[in-house]
Recover the amino acids of this structure.
């Protein structure tokens, strides 16, 4: 939100969330169009669709602001894109020391369900076996959707988490499946991405 406000667009959290949701939904529906974007390209794509939504459905002051920008609208979008990209780069820089430390003891896998790049990231991390943990209600739907994983070149097994008792419980549920081998825990709704992600993954599994 601060990137938009710094650009002179006064938005409430709910107004910006609606634009975020529209852009995210558009990206999912675009499929292959966004699969090969690097981080900066992906942010630019999302910001452009957020702008489109706000231009049509945003509050009056924002719609008037965007309409009055004319050719400057592209520059404003690039300014916001650059702000998001810099923030992401700083977050990665703060994490490098931790990633390096963890890579001494674990094969680090970074998994994202964001815009279809899951298969690429899994292969770069050297991950071929996945234990998918979910609720008793949702697990059958994942099983029907993903099956054995053979179509993705991986093996998928399934386990139930009866109650939401924390992330660490995944290691208790999967203790026998892990069997003391190096592993990675990834949340299904998280995004970890960087321009040098492939290099980081190769270094982690070397």
């Amino acid at each position: 939100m601060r990137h938009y406000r710094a650009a002179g667009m006064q938005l409430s959290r709910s107004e910006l969330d609606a634009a975020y949701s529209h852009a995210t939904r558009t990206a999912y529906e675009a499929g292959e169009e966004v699969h090969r974007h690097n981080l900066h390209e992906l942010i630019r794509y999302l910001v452009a669709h957020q702008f489109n939504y706000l231009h049509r459905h945003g509050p009056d002051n924002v719609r008037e602001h965007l309409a009055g920008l004319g050719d400057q609208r592209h520059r404003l979008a690039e300014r916001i894109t650059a702000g998001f990209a810099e923030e992401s780069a700083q977050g990665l820089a703060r994490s490098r020391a931790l990633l390096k430390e963890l890579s001494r003891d674990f094969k680090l896998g970074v998994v994202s369900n964001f815009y279809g790049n899951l298969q690429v990231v899994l292969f770069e991390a050297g991950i071929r076996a996945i234990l998918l943990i979910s609720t008793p209600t949702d697990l059958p739907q994942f099983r029907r959707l993903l099956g054995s994983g053979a179509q993705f070149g991986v093996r998928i097994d399934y386990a139930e988490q009866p109650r939401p008792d924390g992330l660490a419980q995944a290691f208790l549920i999967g203790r026998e499946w892990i069997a003391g081998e190096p592993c990675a825990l990834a949340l299904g709704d998280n995004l970890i991405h960087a321009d040098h992600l492939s290099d980081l993954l190769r270094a982690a599994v070397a």
Q: What stands out?
A: Residues 106-116 have pLDDT under 50 and may be disordered. The CA atoms of residues 39 and 193 lie 7 Å apart.
